[in-house]
């Protein structure tokens, strides 16, 4: 076949139901032998023309497929398979059928022999065998048609010469010689059809035997193939064992490889962890560098402050030196004055006075100057103290910061040591892994060798798989062939049985007709003899010859022939219609999806609906046949019971009718419920179709018995009872929640069933009474009488129910409770027990009487009672209370239930008559399901278009993913380079940190030295200031004493002039020794000094209290903690990074690499670039909005009264939202100031004030005061 195939030819793949065009023929790299590459019409393939990286042809994805040449069937232009020129289709001889039957092809052994050469030939031979099986089936159908209609067969076959021997055979009998043979009454009923049918049967049997022999030969050939394949499989098993060993070695190598990969992955994770920790260390170092920079700035500020303080100290030192010079001058003047005062004699009084006044003025001026310098010195010393304390605090703060920085440095150094240790460990592990390179090389070589072996083994496995596939296909074909042969054998057996039945029926009819013919011939002979006698009498009497009787034309015979002929033609036409409908259904189902044909699907639901309706119709036929076959009994006596079968047959009729009516009752409810329930319930019932179909065979068995005329009173009815029980128990399980019941049909069917049961009760009870010696004596006789009377009452109630029911069966709901259905089923069970019990009693009693031979006496009471006890114990089992009580209880239950139903119908007669007039008929669920399936099919069309669009999108995404992967690889290379640069920068950074640390230590040491020097200078200055203070105080006291002395002298001198006053004043310096030596003056000076100190202390105390009160009244100063705010720092960093990214994206635009773009793809590249840029801008906008929302949320959290806390989130208040959304000031009110408060010349006007919350509160407080 491969020679006939060529590229571009359209072919069909066997077994996959796909078609395509040949695009490649030849050897491939993935497997040996010749392969054919197909471009499929539908996306049912496995590739796009390339396998394992090798491109053989081009097509769309899922449209490429590689197959063997044997799996391909060439097609013509119209899509029909082409046949080879050398292929022969031998045909078997077939008998021409009556209704256009054609000769059917059969298989030949040549096709089976050619099947050994290739798989394709074997498939052709199997297809030929299937055709032969189909031919045998059609021949069997033709044989059935021959057996069914021999008259039509004769007429269609054109067997006209057969009329001559018929007439001759009738003439040969010798009866009615005077009649014309054309109108003989026995012309149709002859024995000639029997040899014709027997010849046809023999031909059919011979054909079947030939076909069976052909099948056996095929089976033998296939068995030989199977043996050869088994031998090959044994050889393959050894190869598979070697393959298993190699697989085990490969698995070990794969496990070792996985372990190495796991170790490498763990090392990679540790390296990543170390990189992350190094990154964190770098960030910590950066933070430390920032803190060190802050500390350096603080140290610079401290040095500047120190320099300022040194400059101030120098100025103070200069001022101190100036003061010391002035003090020396003053001390010199004082010594001069002392020497002058201590000198004896001296100048005149006027001159002394003049010198003393001058000196006093000079001293006053010096005191004023000294006072000013002292005030300045005091202010300077206080300022210096304040600055000194401030510097001390700054120094303490810097010391604490230095301690914290030292701790952080220690932590970082320890962490760096740990990192170095981890890096060393990782380096050791990497060295160990590198040391295993030799092992890896060895393993790699072994792996390569193993891969070569695995490739070889894979080729062998592929060949073995091909052989296995061939074997599986042969096994499947054998199984299919065997199944088909079995089916054909069953069909042949069924046809043979049918032919036997038809033959038996024909023989019986022939025997009956021959009997009737014999009777007619005897009658005709008698009549002829009588006519001859009469003629002889007439001749003797009248002595004249009498003419022969006229020929009697048998018109009825011709009418029957034409009627049988038309009936046979109608049957043939109906058979053709049935075949056409079956093929129509097959064609329709072939269009349906698998979900429709699956178990429990819509197809099973349809089959269940048809099954229920079919069983109802079959039960109707069966009841009609049973009634016709077993008529009622007019008189029941002991002779009729023991000698005839009519009574027993009527009893069987009652029992069978009872069960069939019960089955019809539940089947009608099934049919109604399945037409009114939901679709889910319908599908649920459809899942039970195989089980229900098995119970249909019970009805078919009874119908088959009726066909054969084998249905009699000995046929058991347990199968019918089982069928009724199955459907009754399954109904509440499947359709109980729906509660769909047709009340009218339910009551009608149950009335029929119970009526049949009553007839059976009455019949069996009368039989029991006739079999007992004394009919109305004893428990069993009275029980029989009770059953008869009760059955009559029950029949009356049933007639009443039947009259009260609505005539329209479509009235479904008449108001019955759900309990009525259960009660009716219990009534069925009780009646069944009664029927079986009475039947068992009757059967055993008859057997006992016939075995004993006492037919005239009857059975005694003890024996009939014993039989009844055994029967009740057998039927009622654990509910047995004895035959009498059990049957009475069952009857009473049935009677009470029927009376209740009759009373209900009588009470609600008007409601039932007016019910369901306006009720709408529900849509059948099968129609709803059909509409849903149509919608689903429409949706699948839209889904297929969507899937095609999705596939195109996926292709585009794959292309984008490849580009992203390339970008990612570039980014990883850049990342590695950046990490290397970062390592170099870290080393430089560590060196700079060490240098700065050294400089900081040196600065710290210098700072300590200068601090010590500064403290020493301050101590010297303080001692100098204290000494000056003491001298100042002494000078003040002396000044006071001198002023008092002068005042006292002025008060004593009355007549002194201004010049004298000045002279007296000049004498002042000469008195200090006297004043100094006066104890009173010293005491007064001491008291004044105390008062001065006291007054000064009180003033200072009052000032302190006043300042304290003022400080207490002031608002407390905010306490600023040195702990950093992580959230704000994070937001600042995020904002800076976002700002930097935005600026960089705006400052450094990117353009596509035009030189890499293929010609013709320029616009697409620019579109892609613009799309990426738009995505970046959109991403930046999104991140900016998210940053704004984060900042706004943080503002809401930090603002008092601006949030509402919930369990899962924090929401801003309405006022806070308004405040955040406000971009312009809002007018909240106005303050009107009277005109009188305005300054002169200013006109009234409106002044806008933009206030914050605090200033607004101040204004409101001031206005409220």
TrEMBL record:
Organism: Tribolium castaneum
Protein's cellular compartments: Cytoplasm, Cytoskeleton
Family annotation (InterPro entries): CAP-Gly_dom_sf (IPR036859), CAP-Gly_domain (IPR000938), Dynactin (IPR022157)
GO biological process, one term: nuclear migration
Gene: AUGUSTUS-3.0.2_12455
Keywords, ordered alphabetically: Coiled coil, Cytoplasm, Cytoskeleton, Dynein, Microtubule
Pfam family, one: CAP_GLY
First-listed, main subcellular location of the protein, grouped into a coarse class: cytoplasm
Family: Belongs to the dynactin 150 kDa subunit family.
UniProt biased composition (Polar residues): 98-107
Coiled-coil residues: 205-544
Designated name of the protein: Dynactin subunit 1
